[in-house]
Amino acid sequence: MASDGSEEFRLVSPSIGNEGKIPRHYTDEGQGAKKNISPPLEWYNVPQGTKTLALVVEDIDAPDPNGPIVPWVHWVVVNIPATVKGLPEGFSGKEEEVGGEYAGIKEGNNDWKVPGWRGPRLPNHGHRFEFRLYALDDELHLGNKVTKDKLMEAIEGHVVGEAVLMAKF
């Protein structure tokens, strides 16, 4: 329960337990067509006043070859309508195909500089992946090239709630 007595805003995946391991077909280490599939996500108890949701997925243990640990962005998704209750498995790159209330959702560029989900492929496993969902009081207008940095700047002062799912690779 949240401090105000309401149910807590939560982000879950039917395929990945909190602090659980990311299954291989969601990674770049999967086989053939069972590779780099975006994982299914569901959320509950969206805060009142939410107009849209935004999602950022990062490897929070990624080392910078020139120094410290710098989060590596794997997926950015913006303008998810508050009425949508989740993203189905394999959603990345198919928002127009899925259609309906999903059609206005926009995927931003990850740190490979391409839009959509890109699963992990690491020299060493054990990294933590943070799926962070932001509940926002407005729709975002970020232009054609959406990035995590543009998103973080645009949502300042508009976040009405955050939910986090942690996973391991």
UniProtKB/TrEMBL annotation:
UniProt xrefs under SUPFAM superfamilies: PEBP-like (SSF49777)
Record-linked InterPro entries: PEBP (IPR008914), PEBP-like_sf (IPR036610), YbhB_YbcL/LppC-like (IPR005247)
Judging by the UniProt lineage, the source's domain of life is: Eukaryota
User: PANTHER family this protein is in?
Assistant: PEBP (PHOSPHATIDYLETHANOLAMINE-BINDING PROTEIN) FAMILY PROTEIN, UNCHARACTERIZED PROTEIN YBCL-RELATED
Write down the NCBIfam families for this protein, in alphabetical order: YbhB/YbcL family Raf kinase inhibitor-like protein (TIGR00481)
Protein name (Swiss-Prot/TrEMBL): UPF0098 protein
Q: Which organism is it from?
A: Senna tora
